[in-house]
Design brief:
By secondary structure, the protein is α/β, with parallel strands linked by helices. It has six helices and nine strands; from the N terminus they run E-H-E-E-E-H-E-E-E-H-E-H-H-E-H. Strands 2-7-1-8-9 form a five-stranded parallel sheet, sandwiched between helices. The chain has a four-stranded mixed sheet with strand order 4-3-6-5. 30% of the residues are buried. It binds guanosine-5'-monophosphate.
């Protein structure tokens, strides 16, 4: 598999509503050596969601890409398919994947050197209000919360670092420190 990227592979995972995409966007803006992979999904684009948040595709297109061997990992998350296309970070850059727990497990199996940062919400209440704030119907929010409860223990068990996203700025600072440390560790 074309995944022997010489750069670091950083997997940012965590239950829904924890603020992963906001964190990852801030991280990538700050560190020019990071390259964010854009996932494919069969989920519909949310109203107000950036058109490049994902590559939005049909189930047929997604399944064809699976058949072509085009994904590093993919999963079914509450009825929609999500997948990381085989990464192609520009030379010298480290790859960032923002994915759920099943995908994180798959990446760890393929590449034991991948760095897995697992993010937890400061409280269930905070997580709930973030999920509601996206405008999803209440029933969907409940499903996502139940899924989050299943994801947490697995994520904690396989993570290299577990962070609590109490304060966005602090979380991003902490992640930057971890990434710098891990880069140095891998150079020695
Ligand atoms: P959402 O529908 O909220 O954008 O994403 C649902 C979940 O799928 C989130 O936990 C998100 O991190 C995860 N996700 C996004 N892209 C991928 C991907 O390429 N692979 C996997 N396994 N999960 C993904």
């Amino acid at each position: 598999m074309a995944f022997n990227s010489r750069g670091l592979v950083i997997v940012v995972s965590g239950p829904g509503g924890v603020g992963k995409s906001t964190i990852v966007d801030a991280l990538v803006k700050r560190d020019a050596n990071l390259w964010l992979s854009r996932s494919w999904t069969t989920r519909e684009q949310r109203s107000g969601e950036a058109p490049d948040a994902y590559k939005f595709v049909t189930r047929e297109q997604f399944e064809q890409h699976i058949a072509d061997g085009g994904f590093l990992e993919w999963t079914d998350f509450l009825g929609n398919l999500y997948g990381t296309p085989t990464p192609s970070a520009p030379e010298g850059k480290d790859t960032v994947l923002e994915i759920e727990v099943d995908g994180a497990q798959q990446v760890k199996q393929i590449n034991a050197n991948a760095l897995l940062l697992f993010i937890l919400p400061p409280s269930r209440q905070e997580q709930k209000s973030r999920l509601h704030g996206r405008g999803d119907p209440a029933q969907k929010v409940e499903k996502r919360l139940r899924k989050a409860e299943d994801e947490e223990p697995i994520g904690k068990a396989i993570a290299d670092y577990v962070l609590i996203n109490d304060d966005l700025g602090e979380t991003v600072n902490e992640m930057s420190r971890i990434i710098d440390f891990e880069r140095k560790k891998r150079q020695t």
